[in-house]
Amino acid sequence: MSAEIISRRLTAIDIRNRKGGQPVVSLTAYHAHTAAIIDSFVDFILVGDSLGMVMHGLETTVPVTLDMMILQGQAVMRGSKRALVVVDLPFGSYEESPQAAFRSAARVMKETGCGAIKMEGGRHMAETVRFLSQRGVPVMGHVGLTPQSFNTMGGFKVQGRDAESAAAVTDDAVAIAEAGAFAIVLEGIVETLAGEITRKVAVPTIGIGASADCDGQILVLEDMLGLSPKVPKFVRRFGSLSAHIEESVRAYAEEVRARTFPSSDNVYKPKA
Ligand code: KIV
Questions:
Q1: Does 98 sit behind a cis peptide bond, omega within 30 degrees of 0 on the bond before it?
Q2: How many DSSP H helices and E strands does the chain contain?
Q3: 49 CA to middle of ligand 1, Å?
Q4: Which residues pair with 85 in a beta bridge?
Q5: Which of 120, 187, 196, 222 is catalytic?
Q6: DSSP code of residue 209
Q7: Is 187 a catalytic residue?
Q8: 220 CA distance to ligand 1 centroid (A)?
Q9: CA of 48 to the centre of ligand 1 (A)
Q10: Is-above-0.85 flag for pTM?
C-alpha cells in the first residue's frame, strides 16, 4: 500500500493490515493547518490528549476534557483528507465502564467524523476494548507509560525495566490485542521489550520512546519540530521552529517600530 495508489481516507483496517509490512508513520496534530501540512506524509494523525500540555500549558493530561478533544478533532478532520484520524479519549471519559466508554467514543466519532479512538490501559481495559470493537468503534490501545496514570505511576516513568514490570506490560499488550484493538501504542518502555511485544501481538505496535523494531512510530508534532521548550530523550528534533518563529517575530517587531511595515504592498488604495 502506498500514498500514490490510495486516494480515499485510510481506515483502521488499513492500519491493522500493515502488521509486519511498511512501517506505519504517524504524528499528532491539533489544528486544521498543521493537519493539512502533515496529511500526505503520515498514515494516521493522532489528536492526542497531549494537547492539554502542548496547547494549554497543563502539567499533565489529566485535566483534559471530552469537549477539548472534540473541538480539536473537528479541526484536524477539516484540515486532513487522506490520513486516518484517531482521537484520544481523555481521562475520566471511559474508565468507569464499557458503557461509559461507548458513550464517549460514539460522541467523539459522531461529532468529529474521525475513524477511530485511542484509550490507555491494558488488561483492566480489555473488556472495554472488546465491547467497543464489537459495536463499531475501532480502538487503538496504549500501554507501557500511560500518561493519564501520572498520579498512580508517581510521574512519567519508563516501564518494563525489571522482569515483573516487563511481564505486566506484555500481558497488557496481549490482552488488548486479543480483545480487538487494531493497533497498540507502546510508550516509554525498554527497547528490547518493545521488540518482543511487537513479535508477540498480531496487530501493529506504534512506538514512542520504545524501539525501531515497532511496526510504526509516533511523535508529538510540536516536539519533533523544535517548538516545545523541553523534550524527553526519545524525541529527535527534526526542525527548529522556535528559533524560526523568534527570528520572524523579531523582524516584524522591528519593522512595526520603524514604520516600514506595512509597506505600499500591504495597504489598499482607493479606486483610481
Ligand atoms: O496524547 C498523545 O500525544 C499520545 C502520544 C504520545 C501517543 O498519546
A1: no
A2: 11, 8
A3: 6
A4: 45
A5: 187
A6: S
A7: yes
A8: 7
A9: 5
A10: yes
Extract the C-alpha cell encoding 53: 500540555
Q: Whose CA is nearest to atom 2 of ligand 1?
A: 48
Per-residue pLDDT of the chain (272 residues), as tens digits, is 454 556 799 999 999 999 999 999 999 999 999 999 999 999 999 999 999 999 999 999 999 999 999 999 999 999 999 999 999 999 999 999 999 999 999 999 999 999 999 999 999 999 999 999 999 999 999 999 999 999 999 989 999 999 999 999 999 999 999 999 999 999 999 999 999 999 999 999 999 999 999 999 999 999 999 999 989 999 999 999 999 999 999 999 999 999 999 999 999 999 98
Q: How far apart are alpha carbons 43 and 204 in whole angstroms?
A: 12
Query: Is any atom of ligand 1 closer than 6 Å to the C-beta of 50?
Result: yes
Count of alpha carbons within 13 angstroms of residue 42, beta-carbon side: 26
Question: Are residues 144 and 188 in contact, defined by beta-carbon separation less than 8 angstroms?
Answer: yes
Residue spans of beta strands (DSSP E) within 120-212: 139-144, 183-187, 205-208
